[in-house]
Amino acid sequence: MDGARSSVGMGGVGDLYHHFLEAVDQAAISSAAWRGLGEKDKADEAAVEAMRRTFDNVPFDGRVAIGEGERDEAPMLYIGEEIGNMVGVAGAPKIDIAVDPLECTNNCADNSPNSIAVLAAAPRGTLLHAPDCYMDKIAGGPELIGHISLDGGVAYNLEQTASALDKAVSDVRVVALDRERHTELFKEIRATGAQLELMGDGDVSAAIWAARPDGPFDLLMGIGAAPEGVISATAIRGLGRRIRRTSGLPFSGRRSTCREHGR
After folding, report:
1. Do the beta carbons of residue 219 and residue 139 sit within 8 Å?
2. Roughly what angle, to the nearest 10 degrees, separates helices 17-32 and 40-55?
3. 263 CB contacts (<8 Å, ≥6 apart)?
4. What is the average pLDDT value for the chain, to the nearest integer?
5. Pseudo-torsion of CA 51, 56, 62, 64, nearest 10°?
6. End of a domain among 57, 88, 123?
7. Is the pLDDT of residue 27 over 70?
8. pLDDT at residue 241, as a whole number
9. 83 or 9, which is more confident
10. For the chain, what is the domain count?
11. b or e along 220-246 (b: 16 or more beta carbons within 10 Å of the residue's beta carbon)?
């Protein structure tokens, strides 16, 4: 092993940030070629291939914790895939990644805003292995730490948010995915007088927006995919913010996977 690889091998996640940034940049650039062409699968494929190709040059012993699916479902970036050019090398940083090379594929296909390439990285074994399940989620800024909880109801969390942010409940801005499963949630939010904005896709972006002090929302609420929940939680932790989530609701047809992973 040459000296350059040896010195990088002693580093950690932070030492590789520019490589990870390159991975998401390449995924975004490649998928952008398919904007507005109505080909969401081809846009996603372009993003996946570009991100995977970039990892071939990253000096780490990497493993996909959350990716494009199980090994028999995805040709690359599948769960458990080993990536990087130092796999098995002594002293190499052992890092798990969670990726969605193109979140909001429909938006890219329709040339609508909010498609993003996302990647979260953490030391080996520290990312939740989230199978194809749904999570209950609530996310907000640092002011809400200790005030909001999934154990509390909708009205409770909105009242707590209003108190912590020193505003009226009617001024609290909530974002949620526009899904039929949220019918009762929407009724409860609107009954409090809080402001509600619906998104077609993209709760990773929505969670980050809710956590940012200059963001357009105060809270993300609702049920969304568990893999995106892990990615959102990692990003929000990096911002010093707060997300709460519980997992356990299986995607249609994937109940066995959730049982296998104890969710």
Report:
1. yes
2. 150
3. 130, 131, 133, 226, 247, 248
4. 87
5. 40
6. 123
7. yes
8. 56
9. 83
10. 2
11. bbbbbbbbbbbbbbbbbeeeebbbbbb
3-state secondary structure of 52: helix
My answer on whether 179 and 215 are in the same domain is: yes
Record the tokens describing residue 187, joined without a space.
Answer: 């009724």
Tell me how far apart the terminal alpha carbons of the chain are, to the nearest angstrom: 42
Closest CA to 127 of 64, 51, 60: 64
User: Which among 76, 66, 75 is positioned nearest to 121, based on CA atoms?
Assistant: 66
- Record the tokens describing residue 118, joined without a space: 């996302």
Range of the domain at 12: 3-123
236/219 Cα distance (integer angstroms): 13
CB 176 within 8 A of CB 220: yes
- Both tokens of residue 19? 């490589």
Residues in the chain: 263
**Residue 131 forms beta bridges with which residues?**
none
Quickly state the pLDDT bin for 69 (edges 50, 70, 90): confident
Beginning with the edge strand found earlier in the chain, give each strand of the sheet holding 133-140 in spatial order.
195-199, 173-177, 219-225, 133-140, 242-250
